[in-house]
Amino acid sequence: MPELPEVESARAVIERAGLHRTIVDVDDSDSYECRPHSPGQIRTALLGRTLTAAHRRGKSMWVDSSDAGPVLGIHLGMSGKIVIGDAEGTEVDGGDYWERGRQAGDHRFTRFGLTFEDGGRLLLIDPRRLGRVRLDPPVEKLGPDAQFIKPPAFRALLETSAAPVKARLMDQDRIAGIGNLLADQILWAARISPARPADELDSDEVSRLLRATRAAIRDAIAGGGVHTLKVVAHRKKVARCPRCKAEMSQGTVGGRTTWWCSREQAQ
DNA sequence: TATAGTGTTATCGG
DNA sequence: ACCGATAACACTAT
């Protein structure tokens, strides 16, 4: 679920409700979510400290801790979300995203947790368990954030590869934050086929693509997630292009299910 | 019961 | 070594 807009929302939850509170307990017992750490390692590193700032690049978050403590890296994977609750277990922030029937206090999918001095908790809830919590994450491997990338860098990442442009847009080492749904929206808005070799795009197409990238991210953050983007509701059989009413086509590009307008995004 | 899925990464072939 | 495609990961929803 989470692409850049959802991760930004999660980062904002931590910033609003998780900073400057003394950590008195840490549940890092899920050794899959906390790989490669062993249980207790993250706990020992954080006990007694506070979180001091929450950062994000692309789909990766990291949180600084006080007293020269470690950096706590959080990745939401396919299904993760951050929720902050009070001592009674009532959710005070983060509970609005992708509820999917989950009730407050349902801890079946809680994979990691911090408990603060007043009993409040910061939780990572992640049914599919493909998310990750780790100390001192290697953030520097990521490409520039898709929200803030500059035209020269954007142009360079496209003209140096014959891979399908969609695959290039989803390469987190080159541009960070674009996932499957955001990519489909961006390519649809720019009227470019997802399968086009990236290095064949002309300068007009590249500038349309960058404008569409910025607009999609802005709209998704404002609307509450990538599922609110225009073409996302039309990624299904029998659906038609919301602009020209031609049939939507489906296929695999860059290893992911891809939908595009059969008329406006023809090769 | 079988399959697809909003992400990442190890592995394989070119 | 680089590049791109694919499978695997864990688990739920349809």
UniProtKB/TrEMBL annotation:
Catalytically driven reaction(s): Hydrolysis of DNA containing ring-opened 7-methylguanine residues, releasing 2,6-diamino-4-hydroxy-5-(N-methyl)formamidopyrimidine
One of its Pfam families is H2TH
**Under what name is this protein listed?**
Formamidopyrimidine-DNA glycosylase
For biological process, the GO terms are: base-excision repair
Q: Which GO terms describe its molecular function?
A: damaged DNA binding; DNA-(apurinic or apyrimidinic site) endonuclease activity; lyase activity; oxidized purine nucleobase lesion DNA N-glycosylase activity; zinc ion binding
Read off the InterPro entries from this record. FPG_cat (IPR012319), FPG_N (IPR035937), H2TH_FPG (IPR015886), Ribosomal_uS13-like_H2TH (IPR010979)
**Residue span(s) of domain Formamidopyrimidine-DNA glycosylase catalytic:** 2-131
Query: Source species, please?
Result: Kineosporia babensis
Highest taxon above the source species: Bacteria
Q: Which UniProt keywords apply?
A: DNA damage, DNA repair, DNA-binding, Glycosidase, Hydrolase, Lyase, Multifunctional enzyme
Family assignment from sequence similarity: Belongs to the FPG family.
